[in-house]
TrEMBL record:
GO terms for molecular function: ATP binding; ATP hydrolysis activity; branched-chain amino acid transmembrane transporter activity. GO terms for biological process: L-amino acid transport. The lineage of its organism: Bacteria, Bacillati, Actinomycetota, Actinomycetes, Micrococcales. Belongs to the ABC transporter superfamily. It comes from the Bacteria. This is ABC transporter ATP-binding protein. It comes from Knoellia flava.
Length: 249
């Protein structure tokens, strides 16, 4: 009998039931169609990207998954349950964690208050403050600082830590590297890899392709509202120049 083929980690992740499954999602801004039948999935503990140039539809796709953009067709399933027609609040309660590109930090509240404000959505999955501080030591140091006194990188870390504190099992990250110095981007990369090691999944919108290749398991390339290619990280890294030319980036 033939030996069973060995499977890579990515293949193993793909054969597990997806945590998030998006099927044929189309989205509209008024009459204009910003997203065309986009399908993708994310397995538990997997980091998956949406890569594409400005206006490709990345943020619209992320917002549609979170239920913040409602003019959509198609389906979104999380942990085997449909999210279609559900509000963003209900989707957060199901386990989706929203990390917007403006980071959404409450400026006058301290780091500790920002962390404690969102309601816990899942008692078993919620990280304690102690666990947050263990994985984000800079937030422990800054715990009594107001949001206004944080650097861009610290704000980004706080924005990522907040849904973990609430118990999200998948983070939707919109361009976490934007506007940050390269050394801080590397730090954000370390945190994403650390979050993954804790079993939390990530769907990441990125224009920084070098960064995307250091953190993700798989990539979805978006052009004019369509996912034109979906590929594992190894292939993405070996074909980066060609793919970027193809996307006009
Ligand atoms: N509120 C809006 N009203 C009308 N059109 C919009 C709106 N938001 C986005 N669009 C259009 O939808 C398309 C997709 O935009 P989207 O912001 O999703 O792209 P993106 O890939 O995230 O780009 P960027 O990185 O520049 O945000 C673009 O053509 C954009 O002009």
């Amino acid at each position: 009998m033939a030996e069973p083929a060995t499977t890579t980690k990515t293949e193993q992740a793909r054969t597990t039931t997806p945590l998030l499954a998006v099927e044929k999602l189309s989205a509209f801004h008024g009459e204009a169609q910003a997203l065309r039948e986009a399908s993708l999935d994310v397995a538990p503990g997997e980091v998956v990207t949406l890569v594409g140039r400005n206006g490709a539809g990345k943020t619209t796709l992320l917002r549609s998954i979170m239920g913040l953009h409602r003019n959509v067709r198609g389906s979104v399933t999380f942990d085997g349950k449909t999210l279609d027609g559900r509000s963003a609040d209900k989707r957060a309660r199901a386990g989706l964690g929203w990390v917007p590109d403006d980071r959404g930090i409450y400026a006058t509240l301290t780091v500790a208050e920002n962390l404690s404000l969102p309601p816990v959505v899942d008692k078993d999955a919620a990280w304690s403050l102690g666990r947050i501080y263990e994985h984000f030591p800079v937030l422990r140091e800054r715990r009594d600082f107001p949001g206004t006194k944080l650097s861009g990188g610290e704000q980004q870390m706080l924005a990522m830590a907040r849904p973990l504190r609430a118990g999200s099992r998948l983070l939707l990250l919109d361009e976490p590297s934007e506007g940050l110095a390269p050394v801080i981007v590397d730090k954000i990369g370390e945190i994403i890899r650390d979050i993954k090691s804790q079993g939390v999944a990530v769907l990441l919108v990125e224009q920084n392709v070098r960064f995307a290749g250091t953190v993700a398991d798989r990539h979805n390339l978006l052009a004019q509202g369509e996912i034109v290619e979906s590929l594992p990280n190894e292939e993405f890294r070996s074909r980066t120049t060609e793919l970027l030319q193809h996307l006009g980036m």
